[in-house]
């Protein structure tokens, strides 16, 4: 079964705005990861946050993790047209040693 | 050259045919994975391997088999293809420490079974 469930499923924003996506999961995790996929291509790893971390930054990306609520959010600040993609969260559940992916969020940034 | 190379990129095959999808990597990673992606379903794990002698079923292994020929090569076979195996297939690798590092994905193989 899918561990991650992203919300919302599709987002359309103007260039320069911020984009926020959420992900919920069901079991205890070692870490949670976010990936980007440009249309029909391979996924690219963006950022990993460990279960004992609450917030992490990488460039224009900010990830938060709330293990009490079993949820995470990905914020992309000052979005660009090149950020148009699908974004997936993936969880490494404890004892599994493999990632389970959510269904993905489609983000469209309008120039 | 890409870190993770999948061949072929696209393939159309007929129902009942045997087909093999190949994956090779230059990352030196021990762990390799096969996922399939269907619209609206995200990525689902088919098989994974933590080293050459280790093969494990994922959540949707029925109808598939794999072979880990070397640390760098992991192939996926459909013994008798059926139309509902039409999907985008991805190979991925990760470091032996797996859990704390991101996966590296190939560009995918788009398979159509007619």
Give the overall silhouette of chain A: globular
Biggest beta sheet attributes of chain A? 6 strands, mixed
What multimeric state do the chains show? heterodimer
Counting helices, strands and paired strands, the structural category of chain A is mainly beta
Question: Which runs of chain B of at least 5 residues are low in confidence (pLDDT < 50)?
Answer: none
Query: What class would the helix/strand composition of chain B place it in?
Result: mainly beta
Task: Kindly provide the radius of gyration of chain B, computed on alpha-carbon positions and rounded to a whole number of angstroms.
Answer: 13 Å
- Number of distinct beta strands of chain A: 11
- Kindly state the number of beta strands of chain B: 11
Fraction of residues in β-strands of chain A: over 45%
**Shape estimate of chain B:** globular
Summary of the model, kept short:
The complex is a heterodimer of chains A (111) and B (114). Chain A is mainly β.
Helices and strands in order:
The complex is a heterodimer of chains A (111) and B (114).
Chain A: E1 5-7, E2 10-14, E3 19-24, E4 29-37, E5 43-50, E6 55-58, E7 61-66, E8 71-76, E9 85-93, E10 99-101, E11 105-110
Parallel strand pairs in A: 2-11
Antiparallel strand pairs in A: 1-3, 3-8, 4-5, 4-9, 6-7, 7-8, 9-10, 9-11
Chain B: E1 4-7, E2 10-13, E3 19-25, E4 31-38, E5 42-51, E6 54-57, E7 64-70, E8 73-78, E9 87-94, E10 104-105, E11 109-113
Parallel strand pairs in B: 2-11
Antiparallel strand pairs in B: 1-3, 3-8, 4-5, 4-9, 5-6, 7-8, 9-10, 9-11
């Amino acid at each position: 079964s899918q561990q991650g469930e992203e919300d919302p499923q599709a987002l359309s924003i103007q260039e320069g705005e911020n984009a926020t996506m959420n992900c919920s999961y069901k079991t205890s995790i070692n870490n949670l990861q976010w990936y980007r996929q440009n249309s029909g291509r391979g996924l690219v790893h963006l950022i990993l946050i460990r279960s004992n971390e609450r917030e992490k930054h990488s460039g224009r990306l900010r990830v938060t993790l709330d293990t009490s609520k079993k949820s995470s959010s990905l914020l992309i600040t000052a979005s660009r047209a090149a950020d148009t993609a699908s974004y997936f969260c993936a969880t490494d559940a404890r004892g599994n040693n493999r990632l389970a992916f959510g269904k993905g969020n489609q983000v469209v940034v309008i120039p | 050259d890409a870190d993770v190379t999948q061949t072929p990129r696209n393939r159309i095959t007929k129902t009942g045919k045997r087909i093999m999808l190949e994956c090779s990597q230059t990352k030196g990673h021990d762990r390799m994975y096969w996922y399939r992606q269907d619209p609206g379903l995200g990525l689902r794990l088919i098989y994974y391997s933590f080293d050459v002698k280790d093969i494990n079923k994922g959540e949707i292994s029925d109808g598939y088999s794999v072979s880990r020929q070397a640390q760098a090569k992991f192939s996926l076979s459909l013994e008798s293809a059926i139309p509902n195996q039409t999907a985008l297939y991805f190979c991925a690798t990760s470091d032996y420490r797996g859990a704390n590092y991101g996966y590296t994905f190939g560009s995918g193989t788009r398979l159509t079974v007619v």
